[in-house]
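User: Please predict the structure of the protein below. I'd like the answer in structure-token form so I can feed it into my own downstream comparison script.

Assistant: Understood. Taking the following sequence of 669 residues as input:
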Amino acid sequence: MGAENAAEPAPPRQSRPVLGLITIVAIALSLFQLYAAGIQPLGLFFQRPIHLGFILVLCFLIHPVFGPDRPRGLAGWLIDGILVLCGVLVGFWVPWNIDIIANSIFPRQIDVAMGVMTTLVVLEAGRRAVGLVMTLIGAVFVAYAFAGSHGELPWLADWMPGILNHRGYTLDRLASQMTLGAEGIFGIPLGVAATFVFIFVLFGAFLEVTGAGKFFIDLAYAATGRQRGGPAKAAVLASAGMGSISGSAIANVVTTGAFTIPLMKRLGYRPAQAGGIEAAASTGGQIMPPLMGAGAFLMSEFTQMPYVHIVLVSIFPAFLYFGAVYLLVHIAAVKQGMKGMKTADLPDLRVVLAGGWHFLLPIGVLIYLLVVGYSPMRVGFFAIGAVIFAAVVRALLDFSRDNPSLSGLIDLARRGAGLTLDALELGARNAVPVSVACAVAGVIVGVVGLTGLGLKFSSMMIAFSGGNLVLALILVMIASLILGMGLPVTAAYIVLIILVGPALTEEFGIPVLIAHLVVFWYSQDSNVTPPVALAGFAGAAIAGSKPMETSFQAWKFAKGLYLVPLFMVFNEPIILGGPLPLVLWNGAIAILAMVAAAAALEGFLWAPMRLWQRGLVLLGVIALFWPDLGAEIAGTLLLGLILGMNQVKGRRMSAAEKAVSVAAAPGRA
């Protein structure tokens, strides 16, 4: 997961004692989380504050107050030292005083002061770990809570439209809302980050340090390298595999893109095309089960549906997305006359599996435990245990074949201990941005709950859309893009679902789960949609191409990000299920719609398509989205006719090309 919406900056130059302290705190946090996940579950007012305290301390140690390029100095250490102590106090206060707080009718002034301090410290942590925009949004919501005749800032009410006005709240009331209940900073977003998300981030860190990333990349190359555009197709598959580990678009780009983008360029893809393909494929990591960039865990909490149910219904939409990207990559390769890579340049599938079969064990354990009904935290705990077990077994098997000795065994144990500590530290470091984002999101959630802003925003949305569902969905898409300019994907999803969720479900009749999936999918668009397209920018940096050109390519290849949510809304059985014939029919036309949309976009499938054919294909795609069986049948017949004509044309062109090559061969007339 890591920093979801920004490329990882160069780590600040820290002194050895500071790096050592970061390591100690990070390892302590990971061990605490493992204890709570697998040994002794803790109540929410123990787990969440302690987790946040660790995260705040790590954040202020990792991110100096004056930025990564300047030494802290005396002034910096004075500020950061105070903030580190505040982080410790945040983690300590509520658990230590829980009995007094729970039995108090009115909050004590010391508790109000702690609430104010916690809110301010969380906002500052958001500025450092996520970005200034996140902090500004949180501050705007705090100011909104104070705006009203009974609030601390009554004059602000004069600047707001009438529908947004409310009574206003005092500092004591807002501080209590933020930290003395489960509807503010210690609410659902932080609860998910402190439990499910962290343990799976840690699971990904253990896989990463043991080499699972390289295994998935090599496996993708071995499977697709010989095909046309092999490296690009490998990027799609590798990003799907890496997405199941990291769930971060940027992390996927910089991890898999370092291998795939240079190979795509060597094969003939333009630099912007190569970077765009990697960005689009990596964005799919956010919607790829089981992690979905923390989305599955949050959806489970918000909708009160089992986590495994969220994962299962998300498999087919993810298949549609990656299938569309894969097809667009194939069409681009065919249009440019590309060939596959040479066998000698590819990893051998047997060798890859022989070297990394043990990475499949923890994935299998994870899937099995989810299916049989274990809680996600327990699943993550046992999956981490499976990674360690598999790595130890593999290391001992290799050791036994290489002239084993006592000194060699000691070195092996040292390496294993070192990797374990590295994974514990990496997992905690990677969890800092998402946990801080969820804490700031808790501030927003608390204000929305206190002021009733969600219902007011829903009324505004209905007014702007005129009750038209398509316009409402376009408004959601635009809002998600704007939020994505400054927020991580997870935070954008939380804010947006709180604001527009009630309107989508209550006013437009969209089922709760589909509403959450639509908002979550649209929250990804800032990764690939210009002018934001942060995954596209990361791909451009690796490809050496222009950021905007690369972003437009990413936007083109990621079209499934916009079409699949529409299909969820207008063809509900692919998510909600129903009679088997109906589910199969909707699944089939969804696949047909994605294939046809890709063909219309590229003007090519088996052969070039004329402009009028592309127009008819678009009409057919719209008919497939229409929630009417007659329209769907008509669209299917139209697409079958146009695509069938294109296939016949492709066969004729292929036969003509073969005839030309035979005639041009040596010894032929």
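That's the full token string. Residues 406-451 form the longest helix (46 residues).
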